Amino acid sequence: MKSRVFVWGAVSLLLLLVACKSTPSGYKQVYDAAKPRSTVQQDTLVSSQAAATPSSSNAAAQGSFRVERLTAVDGSGIKQFSVVIGSFVNKTNAESLKNRMKAQGYNAFLAQNEKEMYRVIVATFDSKANAIAERDAFKVRYAPDFSDTWLLEQAQ
What we know:
With about 160 residues, the chain is an alpha+beta fold. It has 2 domains: about 1-40; about 50-155, Sporulation related repeat (Alpha-Beta Plaits). Helix content is about 45%, strand content about 20%. It is elongated. The chain contains 6 helices and 6 strands, in the order ααααβββαββαβ.
């Protein structure tokens, strides 16, 4: 009798372990679902400081726009207007996107704002019109992946 209980217990345990086995595809599904949440979504409202200047309010009407004081983490200097494709709290995630864009031919670099958010910038310009044109071209090229690409004006 004891051997019969032991056998059934062993078979039950084996079935339980086999049934609960995770698969790599299961991990991938969870990772893919969580990946969009790793980027911090930007609100499309213009800050009160940006709305006070005519050039900023005009750009806001043409899409997402924000005014911030940035410091370059790597790469070249930041001009007045920048095309931002990603915003991250985690520097490793920001560097990953930057490296992906560099591999595709962009001179991408990282900048950090006063709230310690890492911005992934693919282009920076002195002209607002050039920045808008580059942002729009980038959105078309990578649609729908980077549909939330936005402009950032360097605060003085």
